[in-house]
Amino acid sequence: MTAMKTLMTVLLALSVCVNAAVAAGVYKWTDEKGVVHFTDRPPNRDDAVKVPDVRARGNETDRLKSVPATAGEQVTAQMLQGLWCEYELTTTLPDAEAIPKRVEWDFYEGDEVQYRDLGTGRRVETTFRIEGGEIVTDDAEMGSHKIRSYRPELLELGSKDTVYRLRTGGC
Fold this sequence. Notes:
By secondary structure, the chain is α+β, with helices and mostly antiparallel strands.
C-alpha cells in the first residue's frame, strides 16, 4: 500500500509540474493609450492574448522554436513595416545572461527606417533593403543585420552567437 501511495504522490507532483509548464507563457495586450504590453502572467483583461511559440523564463522571453527567414517565404520590407521594440541582447552561449534593451525600430512604408535608443538618445534615420536574408541599411554606423527568425510579433536579428530580440510595438 505504501508503494501505491508513493506512486500516486509522484504522479500528482508530475501533473502539477506539467500543468505549470504548459501555463507559463507570454501574454500581449494594449492599454487605453495604445501602448502594447507583454507579461508572463495572464492579465485580468479580455483583450489579452497568449503569444504563440514563446515561453517565459525569469524576466526574459525565450523562443520555443525559431523560423529562419530562408524557410518558406522570404521576409520583405512590408512584413517589417511598423514599430518594433528591441527588448534584449543575448548570445547562444550556454548560461549567458540576457541584457535588457530599449531600442525602437520604426520601419516606414517603403524603404525608410528610424532607429531610436531610448536609453542613450541615439537616433538614426536611414533607408534599408532586404538582401540575402539581411536588413541592409545605407548608414555605416547602423550597419546590416542578419535576420535569424521572423514571426509577425517577434523578430530575431544577429550573427551566429549574438541575438537581438524585437517584438512588435513600442518599448
